[in-house]
Amino acid sequence: MTTTTPTTTPTGVRAGRRVSALICAVAVGAATACTPSEGAVAPSQVAAVAPASPGAGASKGTTGAPGIGDPDFPGDGNGGYDVQHYDLRLSYDPSSRKLAGSATIEAKAAQDLTSFDLDLHGLTVSRVTVDGGAASFSRSQDELVIQPGRRISNGDRFAVTIDYSGVPEPMRDSANLGEYGFISTADGAFVTCEPNGAKTWFPSNDHPSDKATYDFQITVPEGLTAIANGEMAGTPQTKGGKTTFVWREKHPMASYLATMTTGKFQVRTGTSDKGLPIYVAVADSFRGSLDQLLTQTGKITDYWSTVFGPYPFSSTGGVIDDYAAGYALENQTKPIYGGFSPEPDIIAHELAHQWFGDSLSIGRWRDLWLNEGFATYAEWLWAEHTGQYTADSAFRRYYANAGDAMWAYPPGAARADDLFSAAVYTRGAMTLHALRREIGDDKFFPLIRAWTDAHRYGNVTTQEFIALAERVSGKNLKGLFDAWLFQPKRPAPIT
Ligand SMILES: [Zn+2]
Question: Which residues have a beta carbon within 5 Å of ligand 1, which is an ion?
Answer without folding.
Answer: 1-2, 372, 375
